[in-house]
Amino acid sequence: MEKAGNEELMRRIRELKEEAGATILAHNYQRKEVQEVADFVGDSLELSRKAASVKAKLIVFCGVRFMAETAAIVNPNATVLLPDACAGCPLADMIDENILAEWKKDHPRAKVVCYINSSAAVKAMSDICCTSANAIKIVQRLRGEEVIFIPDENLGRYVSSKTGKKLILYPGFCPTHLVLRPEMLLAMKEKHPNAKTIVHPECRSDVIDLADAALSTSQMLHFAKESDAHEFIVGTEIGLIHRLELENPSKSFYAASSLLVCPNMKRTTLEKVVECIERQRHVIEVPKEIRVGAARAIEEMLVE
Ligand code: SF4
Asked: Whose CA is nearest to atom 1 of ligand 1?
């Protein structure tokens, strides 16, 4: 019954997409059926690049607000819609312009590296953005300079351990990845002794220490494809399991915990995608003065 409903909605979305000349971008953490109807599914870095290059005049961004904002910043010629206006990111909301201004005042010579999970206004006040896929490379670029890393402390600590660079860390965290605790991972490893364990660097450092690798979602997809292993314990939002299974039908993937669910990512449903295109609602607007500064920090990141 529900499946037939989804098929009907997906057919309607394809129709609307055609009529509106829209492209649908979806994050790896989106619901399975939303990923299936999207033109492109990826992580934050892949989606930023895609958003910058698409020719469509309408982008429907199935993700959370900061991602849709990033699309609007890198592609000012397109109208960007967010199917659920309340789909935010608690990690991104843990820092704002006023707090960052204070931190900059306390460390006047420091460069600010800003995780893409942040508002456009915070990006505009930063020197360079990064994602979990390129954070190590970005920090390595800033040789010898003092660096404030915002807002995810776990990612910052992981980057610091990999680059050997002392970073000034901001105490933000992803509530979804934080639920994964070492004892949960140990129990999973005991249950699946032959599985490789991959976790996201937004996880706690004592969880990362137990894993075979800490990887962004795109890196997890690559790792699973290239690995000789047949089983994997996956320590990130469970939405990624759909893609991992789709791309590796002969391999098995186990969520490190069934609690790894981001409620904000799951706010987007097929019904909301239909509604936002039909009614052209939830347009993401970034004021020009913020857009210009944020675009500079994002472009700085996208330069290889
Ligand atoms: Fe934000 Fe964490 Fe959800 Fe990603 S998984 S959108 S970082 S709350």
From this structure: 89
Superfamily grouping for domain 180-255: NadA-like (3.40.50.10800)
Pocket test for ligand 1, best of 31, 89, 202 (most atoms within 8 A of CB): 89
* 58-78 residue pLDDT tens: 999 999 999 999 999 999 999
The hierarchical CATH code for the domain 2-88+265-286 is: 3.40.50.10800
Does residue 174's CB lie within 6 angstroms of at least one atom of ligand 1? yes
Length of the chain: 304
Compute, in degrees rounded to 10, the torsion defined by CA atoms 51, 55, 57, 60: -40
Per-residue pLDDT tens for 111-143? 999 999 999 999 999 999 999 999 999 999 998
Contact between 19 and 33 under an 8 Å Cβ cutoff? The reply is no
Find the helix packing angle between 239-247 and 217-226, rounded to 10°: 30
